[in-house]
Design a protein that fits this description.
By secondary structure, the protein is mainly alpha-helical. It has two domains: 4-79; 82-110. The chain has three helices and no strands. It has helices at 4-40, 61-79, 85-109. Helix 1 runs antiparallel to helix 2. It is elongated and about 75 Å long.
């Protein structure tokens, strides 16, 4: 039977993963929202005088958004890996395979 400390440690780790995901989403929204407001010209008056203000300079914002959204999608898959059946069964198969391999190696030396 699993002791209370290991259950607590697993729960603590899971809560930290969820908190990190929410932090990632918040940073994603703030940074990309700010970039889009600059790109559209709404925040251009707030920029310092020495900053280039040609709007075509900010064409890379779309690519940044797409790449970051893909990274966020990978983070979602990692966060919900226990709810995705394929990932859960794959993980269980890998654990069994490693345990069998290690048991074979131990038997070889006995």
């Amino acid at each position: 039977m699993e002791n209370l400390e290991s259950k607590y440690d697993r729960a603590y780790k899971r809560v930290k993963e969820i908190k990190d995901f929410y932090r990632h989403v918040m940073i994603f929204i703030v940074v990309n929202g700010t970039l889009y407001l600059i790109k559209t010209g709404i925040l251009l008056p707030l920029l310092p005088d020495g900053v280039r203000v040609e709007l075509q300079y900010f064409d890379w914002v779309h690519v940044n958004f797409i790449i970051w959204a893909l990274i966020l999608l990978v983070h979602v898959v990692y966060l919900f890996r226990y709810r995705i059946e394929f990932l859960r069964t794959w993980e269980e198969r890998q654990i069994k395979k490693i345990m069998e391999r290690e048991a074979g190696e131990i038997d070889r030396y006995l």
